[in-house]
Amino acid sequence: MENEQEEGRYIRGACRFCGQMKIVPWSLTQEEADEKATEACDCDDAEWDRKLKERIRKAKEALNSVFGPGAADYGQKPVSERVMLFLQEAACLMAEGYVDNVQTDIPGTCRAKLADTGKGSIKIKRTETTVRSLES
Ligand SMILES: [Zn+2]
């Protein structure tokens, strides 16, 4: 019924992986339309991409909890914003399979370790490195 009127209110987006077209709202840019089409596509690569994004989302959540603002809940010092960006990037590289594990010392704060469990998740470990020594 309204098909003719509605025509033109939609644009086509193409899956980034297989090129399958989907109809999406016209208000989107072509780039957004392609992203929407990719999100909705059922090809293997799009499915893999969704899993990857979910993995990265979970890792960032865990990093925030262990090294970010969430650390204060455990009486621990949150790392600086730049160090957090570094840890997040490390988690992304790990989720994408470029690195297996990353370990770094954050002077005056802690030691951070990220490791690929090989089971689709990333293990995040924080070790406090505060040392107090007195001599008398
Ligand atoms: Zn696809």
Q: In words, what does this structure look like?
A:
- The protein is of the alpha+beta class and 136 residues long.
- It has two domains: 40 residues, no CATH class; 82 residues.
- Helices cover 39% and strands 22% of the residues.
- It has four helices and five strands, in the order H-E-E-H-H-H-E-E-E.
- The strands form two sheets. The chain has a three-stranded antiparallel beta sheet with strand order 3-4-5, covered by helices on one side. A two-stranded antiparallel sheet has the order 1-2.
- Strand 4 and strand 5 form a beta hairpin.
- The longest helix has 23 residues.
- Zinc ion binds next to loops.
Identify the notable features of this structure and list them briefly.
elongated, 136 residues, 22% strand, 5 strands, 2 domains, binds zinc ion, alpha+beta, two-stranded antiparallel ribbon, 4 helices, 3-stranded antiparallel β-sheet
Helix and strand element order: HEEHHHEEE
Question: Helical residue percent?
Answer: 25-40%
Total of DSSP H or I helical runs spanning 4+ residues: 4
Rg: 22 Å
What structural category characterises the helix and strand content? alpha+beta
Strand content: 15-25%
How many domain units?
2
DSSP strand tally: 5
Low-pLDDT ranges: none
Instruction: List cofactors, ions and other ligands.
Output: zinc ion
Q: What is the assembly state of the chains in this entry?
A: single chain
Strand order of the largest sheet: 3-4-5
Distance between the termini: 90 Å
Shape: elongated
- Main β-sheet, in a few words? 3 strands, antiparallel
* Average pLDDT score: 90
